[in-house]
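I'll show a typical protein example:
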Amino acid sequence: MTMVISVPLNFGLRRLAPLLLEFSGSYPEVALEMDFSDRRANLIVEGIDLSIRVTRRLEPGDIARRIGTGTLKLVASPDYLARHGRPQHPRDLAHHECLGYTNAGAAQAWQFLVDGQLESVPVRSRISANNGDVLTEAAARGLGITVQPDFIVDAALAAGRIEAILEDFPIPELGIYAMLPGNRHVPHRVRVLMDFLAGRMAA
């Protein structure tokens, strides 16, 4: 029996693909069809058994199980910070060139915990994209500041091409969710995969 899975592109390639291949090796009786895309799929119409979504907010009516969490980091290149100064407070970002993720919506505002309270900070973006790798590369080239998940920026951070900033002001974490087509009976193989992924991510 084939199980159709929709996974986000970057997170899917970096974190989920190895886990899905491990699952396939452990459960050879289950055939996997993996769709790597950042679009929001219609699970029922497209016949998708399970979708993985990385987000801070679910939509009304979503049927989901939280299987993990992700960390967001605010980063810029040493060159950019040398030329434009290092922001000391999230509100300082109003005077900086920020690199916006277009899938976050038209109104660009980044959220931080300031004195224990969630604060939205409007930012302006001369360069924006729907791909975190492109925005991370733009930041590494000194074109601005971006906020991206750890799984996208960690390699550039380790290489010293970018550095984390405003670390005293945490960014709310991302939820990693297993999305289901509806409230109907969940097939055993789907439950087994959700349990497998949740266990691996917790580890």
Summary: The two ends are 28 Å apart (CA to CA).
